[in-house]
Amino acid sequence: MFTTLLKSPIPFSSSFNSTQNPSKTQKGNHSFNKNSKFSVSKTHRNGPIKMPTPPWMKGPLLLQPDEVLNASKPTTKRSSNNNSKAPEKALFGKESGVRGKKVMKKIIRDVEKLQGNGVLDDNQIGKFEEFEIGNWLEEIGSDGEVKKFDRKMPWVREEEKVVFRRMKKEKVLTQAEIILDNDLLERLRKKAMRMRKWVKVMKAGVTQAVVDEIRLVWRNNELVMLKFGVPLCRNMDRASEIVEMKTGGLVVWCKKDVLVVYRGQNHWLTSNGRRVFSNLVSDNNSTMSQEKSNASTWGRSLNGEDRDENNQPVVGSLYERETDRLLDGLGPRFIDWWMRKPLPVDADLLPEVVPGFRPPTRLSPPKTRPKLTDEELTNLRKLAHPLPFHFALGRNRNLQGLANAILKLWEKSLIAKIAIKWGAQNTDNEQMANELKDLTGGVLLLRNKFLIIFYRGKDFLPQGVANSVMEREMALRRCQLIEEDARVKVAETFQVANEPLAKTSTVGTLAEFQDIQTKYGVLEKENNELEIQIEAQKENLERELRNQERKLAILNVKIEKSATKLAKLNSSWQTAEPDLDLETITEEERECLRKIGLKLSSCLLLGRRGVFNGVIEGVHQHWKHREVVKVITMQRAFLRVIYTAKMLVAESGGILVSVEKLKEGHAIIIYRGKNYRRPSKLMTDHLLTKREALQRSIELQRIGSLKFFAYQRRQAILDLKLKLAKLEEQGVASPQG
């Protein structure tokens, strides 16, 4: 039978597709059978087909015709539906690119699509589920054993990394939500939304006047609306706490800068009109509030809230607890604080005068200057910016209590940050800062109308360190006295017997030094201090004198340069000689022309350039259409105005009618004359041009200013010389005294 199968006349291509072109099929088979090593046996139409085998397979490979893939090129056109892929294309087809995430994702999508379309049969699905893709590849060892790869394939997704997301902030239940019933709370909130009248809370905060006004509104209404201004409008949570604490009400609704406060269910008025609150709540409300509080406590415990040694929940964040620990013992807190917690110390409640208070002892470390550099000052300001406020201050004077508290704070912190209260009357941050600087000796880092920041300084000594320094100095003095006593005893032992004890020499002893200091130390100290002060003042005056003389020399050089430029400009023009044969007009004509000139709406403005060739051209252009021209000048000195008028008459050849004082300046009215003839050339050559006239005006202004400043320098030099002469007289008289 096997021989019969090999001699079967059925061609190999007929097992793939019987509809193909015979000529092409024979040609393809002929080329395929040329391979001497691999050949396919000719079988019947429904018989098995012998396929080429790899070198390591000993037996033949026989496959059924339906199990063999069609490797020939199809002659039919491709379908227009590009989305439909053949199963073998999805598994074995080439993809764009050789490697990368994009290619691997595309392969995975194709495999998943095959699974979804049910292309794989049950056996293949079972095998696919049994083995992982990474274990499909096998390796033939030298001993013939098959070894499996346990490595992960590139397209195998790694396990998801653990990402700790930031937990959402738990919503804290308000007092109204804990105490009040839900139906009642909903009714109050709907009513609050319709309210249109409110009580205004100003900068000073929730004062006693605001509390009294709230109680007055509560007499007739169960709700009152509060509208907050700066600074409480910036922190409405803090505003709610202050209102509930001072009034005893419950905040049921909040929007932007508005709060609505409920007076409570058990509210009534006493005979004095004051508010009385009952601490007892109905059983229903108490049960509901207990359940809500338990639920909130349970939620906080689940979130891992900090607890103390007694397993009680810790109130406040670590930031608040550390600041409270820092401020404990410094004084009462400021309950009207408008920013976030912790609350600062209320400096106005501290004592104004502290008995026995004195500025602290200061001592700089060796080779250290107490003055701050610019870089250190900048760094300290940056360091102080995120720190909380330690004190809130509202008065300008009598700050010994605050200074004492600042000194205690400086033992734990480098910086003291003081906030100035909003709404406090007549606050002066400069006076506050100066008094605190005198009392504490600190370094002022920053001061404005909102805050004051002090640094304790490099030479600050805490109280314990200052006491240790004083004890050390006292110990050194005791040692000096002990050494002196020992020296005296030794001197008494080795003295000559015939020489009396009273004549014992004290040369080089501590007693001699103390005697000299007692007799002459004060006088020499006073004389030395006076001489040092005189020498310092003399040195300052001499330095200032040299500075003024140098500035005067610079001004003189500038004056010479300006005068040279001005002389050059003045030499380039000359005024015209006045015409002796002038035309005369009567007084009636003059008055008539003056009125006509004042009524003229068109005029010629004369600016800082003065009279130049363009002005004369403008005068002639005016005279082309009318007999009178009105020239307005901004010069203030009347003599300068008269000089300008005479110059205009001489250059234009007209007749001066009058010079009038107007609101915007002086008006010069010029009549052209009865025998006026328009010149052939309007612009004259002997006057300055417009640019040269501007340069001349600038140089005149410059030289005037320079001469004024030079005069001031000369006066200052004379005053300094007089002061220097007086100091020299004092220096000569002091040694004689």
Automatic annotation (TrEMBL):
Matches recorded under Pfam families: CRS1_YhbY
Organism of this sequence: Gossypium tomentosum (Hawaiian cotton)
Organism ancestry: Eukaryota, Viridiplantae, Streptophyta, Embryophyta, Tracheophyta
GO terms under cellular component: chloroplast; ribonucleoprotein complex
Subcellular location: Plastid, Chloroplast
UniProt record, GO biological process: Group II intron splicing; mRNA processing
Recorded superkingdom: Eukaryota
Protein name (Swiss-Prot/TrEMBL): CRM domain-containing protein
Main location, first listed in the record: plastid
Compositional bias segments (type: Polar residues): 1-26, 285-300
Keywords from the named record: Chloroplast, Coiled coil, mRNA processing, mRNA splicing, Plastid, Repeat, Ribonucleoprotein, RNA-binding, Transit peptide
Gene3D superfamilies for the chain: YhbY-like (3.30.110.60)
